[in-house]
Design goal:
Number of helices: 3
Distance between the termini: 30 Å
Strand content: 15-25%
Radius of gyration: 12 Å
Shape: globular
CATH topology: Rossmann fold
Oligomer: single chain
Number of domains: 1
Structural class: alpha/beta
Number of strands: 3
Helix content: 40-55%
Strand order of the largest sheet: 1-2-3
């Protein structure tokens, strides 16, 4: 049983670097993660790397229109 079982985390910039490492660790601790990023190809690669319990949403969180997609 992980520390984050049953939790959902939204991680912006989750397709690389610290965001990707955080998303992977959260999944290892039992969370489902939603990762965002601007490039769909990199998001797909990140989701494949994480492996399970991950949803991707392409968009730029600095744009209100893209935030609507994230919380739809």
């Amino acid at each position: 049983m992980g520390k984050l079982d049953g939790k959902v985390a939204v991680i912006t910039g989750g397709s690389s670097g610290i965001g990707l490492a955080t998303a992977k660790r959260f999944v290892e601790e039992g969370a489902h993660v939603v990762i965002t990023g601007r490039r769909e190809k990199e998001l797909k690669e990140a989701a494949d790397f994480i492996g399970r319990n991950v949803t991707t949403v392409a968009g730029d969180v600095s744009r209100l229109e893209d935030l609507d997609q994230l919380y739809a």
